[in-house]
Amino acid sequence: MKLTVVNEVGGETVVALLGPGSFFGEECLPGQLVRRTTATAIAPTSLIVIDKEESTRVLHTERAFCDHFVAYTLSRIIRIEQDLLDQPFNSSQ
Fold first, then answer.
1. CA 39 – CA 15 distance, rounded (Å)
2. What is the Cα–Cα distance from 57 to 69, expressed in whole angstroms?
3. Is the pTM of this model over 0.90?
4. Domain residue spans in the chain?
């Protein structure tokens, strides 16, 4: 699975490649209304869709799952930020 974003001039950037056991779509949990990323399967993929209410309930009641989910999400954010910092900056962009 790849996660991509598109900039204002239509340029697409891959921000993450996800493997088995990955989560995506978590930005909807705190109420973000604008979807900024697109998830695209790049290999045969099986998904489990968990609706927002159930996700919120499990995060509040299942401590081990919550810890895993938060750690996974934070580590992905850190990797994406590091990848951005590693990119050469072009002053005209």
1. 10
2. 13
3. no
4. 2-86
Q: Quick check: 38 and 48 in contact, CB under 8 A?
A: no
* CB-based contacts of 25, cutoff 8 Å, min separation 6: 39
- Return the amino acid letter for 84: L
Helix (H/G/I), strand (E/B), else coil: 68:
helix
Q: Token digits for 39?
A: 């998830």
Nearest CA to 20 out of 50, 51, 41 is that of 41
Length of the chain: 93
Residue whose tokens read 């927002």:
52
Cα distance between the two ends of the chain: 28
Read off the pLDDT of residues 7-19 as tens digits, 9 standing for 90 and up: 888 888 888 899 8
Strands 38-40 and 12-17 come out as unpaired
Task: Answer yes or no: are the C-beta atoms of 12 and 29 closer than 8 Å.
Answer: no
Nearest C-alpha neighbor of 17 from the set 76, 93, 78: 76
